[in-house]
Amino acid sequence: MSACPCDPARPYAACCGPLHAGVAAADAQALMRSRYSAYVLGLRDYVLATWHPSTRPAELALDPAATRWLGLTVKRHGADGDRATVEFVARYRVGGGSAVRLHEVSRFVREDGRWYYLDGEFPGG
Questions:
Q1: 83: β partners
Q2: What is the edge-to-edge ordering of all strands in the sheet holding 67-80?
Q3: Cα 75–99–10 angle (5° rounding)?
Q4: In sequence order, which residues have a C-beta less than 8 Å from that of residue 48 and are 6 or more positions away?
Q5: Do β-strands 83-94 and 67-80 pair in parallel, antiparallel, or remain unpaired?
Q6: What is the Cα–Cα distance from 98 to 92, expressed in whole angstroms?
Q7: Is 32 helix (H, G, I), strand (E, B) or coil?
Q8: Rounded to whole angstroms, how far apart are CA atoms 63 and 44?
Q9: What is this structure's pTM?
Q10: What secondary structure letter does DSSP report for 51?
Q11: Lesser CB count within 10 Å: N end or C end of the chain?
């Protein structure tokens, strides 16, 4: 079994693999982790399917050969009924460039038993 991109201490088959195969995420943090793993693996259709239709882009280009994802840290998460937020830092490198930190506070909504990514803010500092 290979390690899961969102948490190398867990096997992919027991972490994000089932979500990528269609199992609904138990909470917003699990969805966010599975979306990170989908970016790492180039699973464009999964990223779009888990993006709320009201904010989903018409197109999304993923190039896993050009972008090397270096790791994910979840800083905090919280839920209030069918709404949730997850703050995380994802590190990546494009080509031979310097590593970049993507720090986001993401908003999620649950509809019909499934969590969806709505949007995110990038905190300063």
A1: 80, 109
A2: 67-80, 83-94, 100-111, 114-121
A3: 50
A4: 56, 57, 60
A5: antiparallel
A6: 9
A7: helix
A8: 9
A9: 0.95
A10: B
A11: C
Amino acid making up residue 16 = C
Q: Tell me, what DSSP letter sits at residue 34?
A: H
Cα–Cα distance, 122 to 103 (Å, whole number): 6
What proportions of the chain, in percent to the nearest 5, are helix, strand and coil?
Answer: 20, 45, 35
Query: What tokens appear for 67 in the block?
Result: 């972008």
Tokens of 32: 């966010």
**Under 8 Å between Cβ of 52 and 69:** no
Amino acid at 50: T
pLDDT digits (tens, 9 = 90+) for 26-62: 999 999 999 999 999 999 999 999 999 999 999 999 8
